[in-house]
Amino acid sequence: MKYEVIEENGFKYIEAGKGETLVLLHGLMGELSNWEATIDHFQDRYHILVPILPIYELPILTLGVKSLSKYVYKFVKHKKLSQVVLIGNSLGGHVGLSFTVAHQAHVKALVLTGSSGLYENAFGGSFPRRESYDYIKEKVAYTFYDPATATKELVDEVFKSVNDRSRVIRILALAKSAIRHNMSKEIPKITIPVSLIWGKQDKVTPPEVAQEFHDLLPNSELNWVDKCGHAPMMERPEEFNEYLGRFLNRILLK
After folding, report:
1. Is 146 left (phi over 0), alpha (psi -120 to 50) or beta?
2. Is the pLDDT at 105 greater than 70, yes or no?
3. How far apart are CA 156 and CA 143, in angstroms?
4. Measuring CA to CA, how many Å separate 5 from each of 12, 14, 50, 182, 243?
């Protein structure tokens, strides 16, 4: 990771660029490096913040989508931000939705890519063969359309996490919390502009999930990225950045 992680007041995050603020939220198994191509592309025009969500630090009894949303709110207040564009992948999208429902006045627009919040088909609730490197490699590759996107570095990171007992307990607790926290009744309350940027071959949050988000969100657009799985910003960064750039131009440069 080429960007320095800043640590202050209990927060860890990356910060780059100047201008309107984009807050990028990573997924359950995501790393800050997942957003590297997005930061590279937009830091000359926007102020970008990527907080590390405290998945392994919050008390396990309170660990859930809402507690992570509250953490993001504290982070936004700490950075003295008024209105931001939230951009979330997978669990990060779910956290962004929860944050927006609770604090819509603080959010100028929302971007969801492979977001949970309605339905997801992740690891299936358990890691039955977590000691097997090949099994984890196969599961990580499942996230993408092109298995080659699951680099050794990425697989190593996930393998390390799921073989740390305290970490895996938290991952499973949070995954179950996300599945229980269905937001279909709350999502129509979100009236700010929303861009859905979705992999056509996403097997974790399939295309019908994107369509349901689009139907429920009154002010949304739906953009498809072909030959792409659950993380378009990693697997098809040029197309993802193109869709995101157009959306930002439309809502921020009026």
Report:
1. beta
2. yes
3. 15
4. 6, 5, 9, 32, 27
pLDDT digits (tens, 9 = 90+) for 64-98: 899 999 999 999 999 999 899 999 999 999 999 99
Q: Is the pTM for the entire model greater than 0.70?
A: yes
- Paired sense of beta strands 47-51 and 11-16, if any: antiparallel
Sign of CA dihedral 63, 32, 169, 59: negative
Cα separation values, 157 from 29, 64, 137, 161, 228, Å: 9, 22, 11, 6, 22
**Cα separation, 197 vs 222, whole angstroms:** 6
**Helix ranges, the chain (H):** 36-42, 65-78, 91-102, 133-142, 152-162, 165-180, 207-216, 232-235, 237-252
| Tokens 């209990």 sit on residue | 10
d(CA 133, CA 108): 42
Whole-number Å distance between alpha carbons of 136 and 11: 30
**From the CA atom positions of the chain, what is the Rg in Å?**
17
Q: How many CB atoms lie within 10 A of CB 113?
A: 30
By the 8 A CB rule, do 28 and 91 touch?
A: yes
Per-residue 3-state assignment (H helix, E strand, C coil) for 135-172: HHHHHHHHCCCCHHHCCHHHHHHHHHHHCCHHHHHHHH
Compute the average pLDDT of residues 217-228. Answer: 98
φ, ψ for residue 79 (rounded to 5)? -85, 0
Tell me which residue of 195, 247, 199 sits closest to 224, measured CA to CA: 199
Closest CA to 178 of 6, 53, 34: 53
Q: Quickly list DSSP for 80-106.
A: T-SSEEEEEETHHHHHHHHHHHH-GGG
